[in-house]
Design a protein that fits this description.
single chain, 712 residues, alpha/beta, Rossmann fold, four-stranded antiparallel beta sheet, 22 helices, 12 strands
C-alpha cells in the first residue's frame, strides 16, 4: 500500500472558493432570508401573537386625555425706569437661558408649588383619576404624579413652549395644564421682581403699623388737651392737611391781654399828663392863644385910647367891655378843658383796672397750665416723631413702587382647553408597535438561529474553520429517489458524485488513492451512500473497485441495495481468523464494483479491527483491485474508525450540512489526526434549499462546479 502525498486541485475548485468568498457579504442577506422562510410559520405565529397582545392591551388601557397650554418665553428687557438687570439682558439670547427655563418647567419645586396651589389632596377628581386614598397623600407624592404625567415640548424655531398634561379626566387635564403655566409665570415674576415686591409688602405693613401708632399718639394728645382744656391755635399737620394748633388758647389770651393792658396803661398815663398840663395852663392869663391875641389887641387899643380920651369915651367903654368878655371867655374855656381831661383820665383808669384784672386771671390760668405743658410737650413730640417716621416710610414705599415696576417676560399665549376625545390608547399605533415588536422578535429569532447555528451551512466554512478542502457537494435527495438518480447519468446526484470522484483524482500524482476510507462524525450523515457512489463512479471508468463494508456494528448497505447476497463469513469472519475471504466478495450485475460485506456482528469489533489481519487483508485486496473503498463506522464514541484510518492511504470525511455542531466535527477530526490518519478532505452532503443563499443546493449544477465529468 503506497502512502502518497495528498493534494487539492488548484484549478476550478480554488477559483470557485475565491468567488464564493467575494460574494459572501451579499449572500448574507439571502442567508437570513432563507432562514426566515424556514421559520415562516413561527414568524407568522409571533406576529399574530404580538398583534393580539397589542389589541388586548389597547382594550385594557385606561383612556387618557391630554390638554395643552402654550406660553411664550421672551428675552428679558430692561424696565421702564432703566434700572433693569443688565447681566440678565446679556444672558437672554443665550441658548442656556431657554434650556434652563425648560428644566425649571419640569422641576420638582414647581411641581410642589402646583400641588400646593391646586390643593389636590382634597380634590376628589384628582384622587379618583390617579387612584389615591381618601386623603392624607403627601405633597411630594402628588408632585411626583404630576411630573410623571407632564410633557414639556418647546416649539422649534420659536420662543413658544407647550405644557401638556395627561390624565384619565379631561377637565382635570386642562385645569392642571393651566395651573402649571400660571404658577410658572408667577414664579418667574417673583424671581425677577420678588425683592421689590417683598420690600413693598414689608413697607406696606410698616406703614400700616406706623399709621396706627400715629393715630393713637394724636388721639392721646387730643384727649389730654381736652381733659386739661388745652386749646391749640397753631395748625398741626396730618395726613389730610392742617387741622390743629401748637399755641394754647391761654397763652394767646394772656398775650393779647398783656398788649391791651399795656395800651390802657399808656392811655391812662397820657390822660394824666394832659390833665396836669391843662392845670398848669389854667394858672396863666393866656389860656387860649386866640383869646390871648385878641385880648392883647383890645388892651393895646384901650391903652391908646385912654391916653387920649377919658374913661367915658364910648370906644374905650366898648373896648373895656370887650376886654371883660374876652377874659370871661378865657376863664370858661379853661374850666371846660379841665373837666374833659378829668373825664378822660377816669375812663383810662377804669379801662386799665379792668384789663389788669383780666390779665391777672389769664396769668393765673396760664401759670396753671405750665405744669401740664410738660406732659403735653412729651405727647406732642411723640406725635411729631411718629409723623416723621410715617412720612419717611410712605416716601420710601412710593420710590420702590417706581423702581420695582416691571413687566413679566413670559406670557400665557393659549389656555388649555378640555379635550373632547382621548389621545391614548391609539389602536392603530398600538397595532403598529405590536407588529414592529413581532417583526423585531422574529428578526432576532432568525438572526440567532442563523448566527448561533453551529452546523455547516456554508461549505466554505469547511476550509475556513476545519481547514479541509471540499472534495464534493452532495444535494439532499428523497430516499425513494436515490437509486433512480444514481442510475441516471444526468441526474443532479450522479453529477455531484462524479465531481467528487474527479476531485479525488487530484489527491495524488497517480490519481485516486488506492485505499480510501469514508467516515463521519455520527451515523446517518451519508457516508455509506457517498462510498457506494464513488465506488460506482470509479467502476464506470473501468477500474476494478471493491466496496469494503467495515462498519461491523451497524452496516447501512441494505439501505441502498434491496438485497445483497451474504456469502461466506464476511469481513468479521476473516478478522476473527477465517482464511477465506474471496467467497465473501459479492459481484452485482447492476453495479460495476464488488462488495465485501461486513459479515455477522462480532461482540468485539474494535479488537478485531485493531489486529494485524485488517492490514493483511488490504494488502491482499490491493493486489487484485485498483481501488478499495472502505466504509468505516462513525468516529465519535468508537475506536473502529481510528484503527481503520491507520491502515488506509487516507480518509475522506463526510459532513452532513445543516446538522450537527462544528465543535463535534472538530473533535472527531482531532481524534483522527491523533491516530496518525491522513485526511484528504471533506464531502458535504444533504445540501438543500437552506443552502441556496450560499450558492449551493438544488438547481446549482454540482458537476459543473468542479469541471465536467469525463465519462458522462
Amino acid at each position: 500500500m503506497n502512502n502518497q502525498q495528498a493534494r487539492v486541485s488548484g484549478g476550478d475548485h480554488d477559483e470557485f472558493e475565491a468567488v464564493d468568498t467575494d460574494f459572501l457579504s451579499i449572500h448574507d442577506l439571502e442567508r437570513f432570508w432563507r432562514q426566515a422562510l424556514n421559520l415562516r410559520y413561527v414568524i407568522l405565529g409571533i406576529i399574530v401573537f404580538s398583534l393580539v397582545v397589542g389589541l388586548v392591551i389597547t382594550l385594557l388601557q385606561t383612556p387618557l386625555y391630554r390638554s395643552t397650554a402654550r406660553i411664550e418665553i421672551s428675552q428679558i428687557e430692561s424696565d421702564a425706569t432703566n434700572i433693569g438687570d443688565v447681566q440678565l439682558q446679556n444672558i437672554a439670547g443665550d441658548r442656556q437661558y431657554f434650556a434652563t427655563q425648560y428644566e425649571l418647567l419640569r422641576s420638582r419645586s414647581l411641581a410642589t408649588r402646583v400641588a400646593s396651589a391646586g390643593n389636590f389632596d382634597r380634590n376628589e377628581a384628582f384622587r379618583t383619576a390617579f387612584g389615591l386614598a381618601e386623603k392624607g397623600t403627601s405633597e411630594n407624592t402628588i408632585a411626583s404624579i404630576l411630573r410623571s404625567n407632564l410633557t414639556i415640548e418647546p416649539i422649534s424655531n420659536s420662543n413658544l413652549v407647550d405644557i401638556k398634561f395627561s390624565s384619565p379626566d379631561a377637565k382635570l387635564s386642562a385645569e392642571i395644564a393651566n395651573l402649571w403655566a400660571m404658577e410658572f409665570l408667577g414664579t418667574n415674576f417673583d424671581k425677577r421682581f420678588g425683592s421689590n415686591v417683598e420690600a413693598q409688602k414689608f413697607l406696606a405693613d410698616q406703614i400700616s403699623e406706623m399709621r396706627e401708632k400715629l393715630q393713637l399718639s394724636e388721639q392721646e394728645l387730643i384727649d389730654y388737651a381736652n381733659a386739661n382744656e388745652i386749646v391749640n391755635i397753631t395748625p398741626i399737620a396730618t395726613e389730610e392737611g392742617s387741622t390743629g394748633g401748637g399755641q394754647t388758647l391761654a397763652s394767646s389770651v394772656l398775650s393779647a391781654l398783656s398788649g391791651d393792658l399795656a395800651r390802657a396803661t399808656a392811655a391812662r398815663i397820657e390822660a394824666e399828663s394832659a390833665l396836669r398840663a391843662n392845670a398848669a395852663a389854667a394858672g396863666s392869663v393866656d389860656a387860649s392863644a386866640g383869646l390871648k391875641s385878641r385880648l392883647s389887641e383890645v388892651q393895646a387899643k384901650l391903652a391908646s385910647l385912654k391916653s387920649q380920651f377919658g374913661p367915658s369915651y364910648p370906644q374905650i367903654v366898648a373896648l373895656s367891655a370887650e376886654e371883660a368878655s374876652i377874659r370871661s371867655s378865657m376863664q370858661g374855656a379853661s374850666n371846660d378843658m379841665s373837666r374833659e381831661l378829668q373825664a378822660n383820665l377816669r375812663k383810662a383808669l377804669l379801662q386799665e383796672q379792668a384789663l389788669q384784672r383780666e390779665f391777672n386771671r389769664a396769668k393765673s390760668g396760664y401759670l396753671g397750665q405750665q405744669g401740664q405743658g410738660v406732659r403735653y410737650g412729651i405727647l406732642k413730640r411723640e406725635v411729631d416723631t411718629n409723623r416723621q417716621l410715617y412720612d419717611a416710610l410712605l416716601q420710601r414705599y412710593k420710590e420702590i413702587g417706581v423702581v420695582g415696576a416691571g413687566k413679566n417676560n413670559m406670557i400665557l399665549v393659549d389656555k388649555a382647553e378640555i379635550p373632547k376625545q382621548p389621545y391614548e390608547p391609539s389602536l392603530s399605533r398600538n397595532l403598529l408597535l405590536a407588529f414592529l415588536f413581532g417583526a423585531l422578535g422574529s428578526g432576532g429569532l432568525v438572526f440567532l438561529r442563523e448566527t448561533m447555528d453551529q452546523s455547516i451551512r456554508n461549505p466554505t466554512d469547511v476550509k475556513r474553520i476545519l481547514d479541509l478542502p471540499v472534495l464534493g457537494l452532495i444535494p439532499l435527495i428523497p430516499e425513494d429517489d436515490i437509486n433512480a438518480q444514481l442510475n441516471d447519468k444526468k441526474s443532479e446526484l450522479n453529477e455531484a458524485y462524479q465531481a467528487t470522484r474527479t476531485n479525488l483524482g487530484f489527491l495524488t500524482d497517480s490519481g485516486v488513492p488506492q485505499t480510501v476510507m469514508f467516515t463521519s462524525t455520527r451515523p446517518d450523515e451519508g457516508k455509506t451512500l457517498t462510498a457506494v457512489a464513488v465506488a460506482e463512479s470509479l467502476g464506470y471508468l473501468g477500474k476494478r473497485v471493491l466496496y469494503l463494508d467495515a462498519d461491523l456494528r451497524n452496516s447501512g448497505l441494505h439501505e441502498i441495495f434491496d438485497n445483497v447476497p451474504k456469502k461466506g463469513a464476511g469481513l468479521s469472519g476473516f478478522l476473527a481468523g477465517s482464511d477465506g475471504y474471496q467467497e465473501s466478495i459479492v459481484s452485482l450485475e447492476s453495479h460495476p464494483f464488488d462488495i465485501l460485506t461486513s459479515g455477522r456482528k462480532p461482540p468485539n469489533p474494535g479488537e478485531l479491527l485493531a489486529g494485524p489481519r485488517m492490514q493483511t487483508l488490504l494488502e491482499k485486496l490491493c493486489a487484485t483491485y485498483d481501488h478499495i473503498i472502505v466504509d468505516s463506522p462513525p468516529v465519535l464514541g468508537l475506536a473502529d474508525a481510528l484503527e481503520l484510518a491507520s491502515v488506509v492511504d487516507g480518509v475522506v470525511f463526510v459532513i452532513e450540512a445543516n446538522s450537527g455542531k462544528v465543535r463535534t466535527i472538530q473533535q472527531a477530526l482531532g481524534r483522527l489526526e491523533t491516530s496518525g490518519a491522513r485526511i484528504f478532505g471533506a464531502v458535504v452532503t444533504k445540501l438543500d434549499d437552506r443552502n441556496l443563499s450560499y450558492g449551493y443546493g438544488y438547481g446549482y449544477g454540482y458537476g459543473h462546479s468542479y469541471g465536467d465529468n469525463d465519462d458522462s
